[in-house]
Recover the amino acids of this structure.
């Protein structure tokens, strides 16, 4: 399996706080990798370094063999790294299709082409009947789908997804999980941050766990969640001792 992303010893310090410390991991082409860790573990910081929103203090990030360090978010997106945000904020006053077109303009200057691609994506997301409504009028779950659509329109090979089911009902979460699987089936490699364990377990081929900015586990979801280090990070030392 070829490596699409190689993260090599990246670190980030904010003042006195070491948010990410010498983090290394690989992501294989076609894989869904879950990024886990308790609040404040450094997941978003790691994401932001890969997407170019934050500069790394140390280390390198290779995408398809090419270093992303020092590149602007826009250029990283053009290379094929898309991202979704935890808080999806559609452009109000634009329709659902027009919102997705914004993503498509990363790849094309033709309005007709952007519209055609956006319509296909809106259809894929199951939002065709809402294509012409103001994006501000969408429900929370449909906004999440739109967020995914905007990212897909940039034609990513790697998609960084931040908490796709936050605030969703179990049924809506199930819908999002199915959509993410379909995105992978279209050939997109995925790195996903998610707090809902059931979602991560159901989606990820492999998971990595961060705690205080350090990688503490890397493996198949079922093995990783039972590792004492991981339980300690999530539930504390006492919980682990009470189980052993
Ligand atoms: N711009 C910043 N300036 C200062 N400290 C920051 C900044 N961004 C993040 N931090 C701190 O860095 C640490 C890691 O934060 P980060 O948001 O990466 O964690 P996280 O794992 O994504 O957490 P959560 O699950 O709560 O979103 C936290 O202690 C946070 O307060």
């Amino acid at each position: 399996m070829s490596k699409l992303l190689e993260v090599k010893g990246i670190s980030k310090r904010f003042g006195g706080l070491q948010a990410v410390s010498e983090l290394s991991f690989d992501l294989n082409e076609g894989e869904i990798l879950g990024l886990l860790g308790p609040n404040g573990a450094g997941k978003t910081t790691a994401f932001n370094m890969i997407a170019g929103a934050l500069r790394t203090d140390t280390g390198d990030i290779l995408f398809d063999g090419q270093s992303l360090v020092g590149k602007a978010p826009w250029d990283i997106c053009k290379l094929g790294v898309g991202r979704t945000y935890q808080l999806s904020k559609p452009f109000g006053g634009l329709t659902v299709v027009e919102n997705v077109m914004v993503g498509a303009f990363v790849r094309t200057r033709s309005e007709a082409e952007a519209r055609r691609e956006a319509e296909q994506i809106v259809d894929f997301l199951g939002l065709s009947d809402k294509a012409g409504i103001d994006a501000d009028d969408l429900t929370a779950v449909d906004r999440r789908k739109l967020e995914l659509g905007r990212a897909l329109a940039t034609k990513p090979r790697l998609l960084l997804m931040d908490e796709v089911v936050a605030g969703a009902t179990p049924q809506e979460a199930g819908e999002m999980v199915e959509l993410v699987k379909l995105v992978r089936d279209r050939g997109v490699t995925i790195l996903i941050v998610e707090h809902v364990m059931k979602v991560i377990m159901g989606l990820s081929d492999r998971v990595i766990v961060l705690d205080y900015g350090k990688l503490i586990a890397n493996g198949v979801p079922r093995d990783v969640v039972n590792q004492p280090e991981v339980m300690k990070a999530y539930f504390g030392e006492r919980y682990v001792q009470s189980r052993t």
Notes: The longest strand covers residues 3-14.
